[in-house]
Amino acid sequence: MASQIGILDLIIVLAFVGYICWRGFTASRNQKSPADFFLASRSLTWPLIGISLYASNMSSSSLIGLSSSGYENGIYVYNYEWMGIILLVIFAIYFVPLYLRAKLYTMPELLEKRFDFRSRYYFSTLSILVNIGIDTAGALYAGGILIQILFPVVDMGTAILIIAISAGMYTIAGGLRAVVFTDVLQGILLTVGSLILTIILFNHIGSWEAIKEAAHPDSFNLIRSRDDKVLPWPALILGLPLLSFYFWCTNQHIVQRVLGARSIDDGRKGAIFAGFLKVPVLFIMIFPGIMALSIYPELDNPNMVMPQLMLDFLPAGILGLVLAGFLAALMSSIDSALNSASTLLTMDFYKKIRPRSDQKELVRIGRIFTLLFVLIASLWAPYIDRFPTLWEYLQAALSYLIPPVVVCFLFGLYWKRATPLAAFMSLIVGGLSALIIMLLHALALIPYIHFLYVAAILFGLSSLTMIITSLIDKHPGLSESFADQFRAQTEEESSQTPSSDEENKTTDIKTDTSVSGSAYMDYRFYAAVLMILTTGVVIWFW
Question: Compositionally biased, Basic and acidic residues: which spans (predicted)?
Fold first, then answer.
């Protein structure tokens, strides 16, 4: 089997890329306000939200990362997926109503409402760094791998630059509406393509026994022993929920889709729908990496597994469609991260500095920031190659950066005594502690600590700082938890006559209760089904 793309496949890929770029530029015609550009005019329905959430999560970097981790260490990586499903259900039930009633543009806004500007700017700056250094750079690196396989004469730096220019121009023009459109196409093509590839691989290998024989002894065990180097079970309990909470409940890159929902019910159902879409990831995106062990037993770079399988096993025409989906996933990852980073810098910083900026100026500045960010990510992406796998880079980086933010959100929403000074101090202490641990590791002054244990340690230090500082601080606490207080406030506001139809979309609480006439239309029914289904999969592969 030749590892090269045919003329038909190349035509399909180029036509598809041209089409989605065209759609991005046509979407720019209606970008007249920040709500249009950053939140798709707050008009997204639950199917679009669900597919977009799933597609942004199952990006090109995740697809490569999941398959390479499956190749290296088996299905353990699915722990991130089922934990994410649980957090999506929690997000839908408890956080979506709060966020939509607040009519937020960015997640750091909520920290300023609860604490003060210091927490907002810290989290906003951190979110921008994560979106550019992890999300965008990781996606560019994944795209560079694909371009190098398709066109071996192209070096990594040039490949990354080609992808960056294409996705950057598309995002600059279309905003969130164009991002969601790409997500829908990518989600459909990539899921169907992964399913076809899995079936072809299984038929090629011939039997389940042959797959198990070539795999590592514990490849099919989700829960690993205490001394496992990849994912010991204590780390699964202590650290993984923190990463999942950040990613699904506070990450601007992800939550921005829900902020663009037309109603609370659409936001909730969209999050739950995304959870259903994540369930089969184990079978169509991780298993192919395990199957590849019987085909490529000695790959030098595990990150090459999925692109190589596609090129070697997918027939002409189907390969072009799947590669188009892969490129759509790549562009979705990049445009999502760029759009969210641009939103953060525009609404959290630029608008504060220039409060009299009109709507057209904010949209124009958002596009300029998008261009700046894609250039920065392009410079950083080639250095990701120094990590063993792309997945390890993505998860390890988050483990050091996000635990203090999780502390601020949890304590800020549900502990009325937490004070603004305590929030800021917990962020500073957590950030400095992460830096110290990284330096000690780099200098080999302490033994290796699994990154999920690091996340738990940082969460504990930040929580302790939050509690002690709040109890010492003379700043008065709230009369009730912020979640209850803010909910009551926004319900009172929503009962008044809204000033426009746009406000009514996200403040009318009736959208949350009107579904009670039928259990099969209630988000709680689907949340329960999703939890039962997820539990069954986890028990099956325990």
Answer: 502-511
Q: Is the dihedral of CA 467, 472, 476, 479 positive or negative?
A: positive
Copy the structure tokens of residue 157: 């730096």
The tally of domains found in the chain comes to 1
* Any domain includes 471: no
Domain that holds residue 169: 7-384
Q: Indicate the SS3 state at residue 540.
A: helix
State which amino acid sits at residue 313: F
Q: What pLDDT, in 10s, does the model give residues 18-66? A: 776 676 556 555 545 444 444 445 667 888 888 878 877 776 566 777 8
pLDDT digits (tens, 9 = 90+) for 462-473: 999 999 999 998
Three-state secondary structure call for residue 44 = strand
How much of the chain exceeds pLDDT 70, in percent?
A: 73
Distance CA 17, CA 453 (A): 41
Amino acid letter, 135: D
Q: Which tokens is 143 given?
A: 């795209």
Q: How far is CA 241 from CA 1, 203, 399, in A?
A: 42, 37, 11
Three-class SS of residue 3? coil
Question: Residue 35 corresponds to which tokens in the numbers above?
Answer: 């709500």
Burial 413-448 (b: 16+ CB within 10 A, else e): bebbbbbbbbbbbbbebbbebbeebeeebeeeeeee
Q: How far, in Å, are 33, 169, 255, 349 from residue 369 at the CA level? A: 16, 12, 20, 12
Residue type, 212: K
Question: How much is the pLDDT for 534?
Answer: 93
For residue 478, being part of any structural domain is answered with no
Evaluate whether 208 touches 215 at the Cβ level (below 8 Å). Answer: no
Is 469 among the domain residues? no
Query: What is the spatial distance between Cα 127 and Cα 408, in angstroms, rounded to a whole number?
Result: 14
58-62, 335-339, 485-489: segment of lowest average pLDDT = 485-489
CATH number of the domain to which 98 belongs: 1.20.1730.10
